[in-house]
Amino acid sequence: MRRQVASGGDRPKLRSLTMTSKGQVTISAKARKTLGLDQGDTLIEMVVGNCIVLLPQNQILADTARKAQEAIKLAGVSAEEIIAEAEKLKAEKLSQRYPGL
Questions:
Q1: What is the pLDDT of residue 10?
Q2: Are 80 and 96 in contact, with CB atoms under 8 Å apart?
Q3: Using an 8 Å Cβ cutoff, are 61 and 67 in contact?
Q4: What Å distances lie between residue 50 and 30, 31, 46, CA to CA?
């Protein structure tokens, strides 16, 4: 089970990392545990100004899914309506690509 990082009053902890000749760095065990990172997890790299920001991919996907669910709920659209519209668009694309089928 992944842990969520508390926001707000937590002060960032700075730590120096050394990059190897292959461009690899080691993330501390404490940071990995705090973020619930395991061997093989994927991180998203983002360059912001002169900084490199690493974000856990699973966190990004979970946040995106949550925001999508909230937007769908606010729009008053059901999952069935979304599926039906997707099927309709798929059928339209197929008929455009393969006329006469």
A1: 66
A2: no
A3: no
A4: 25, 22, 11
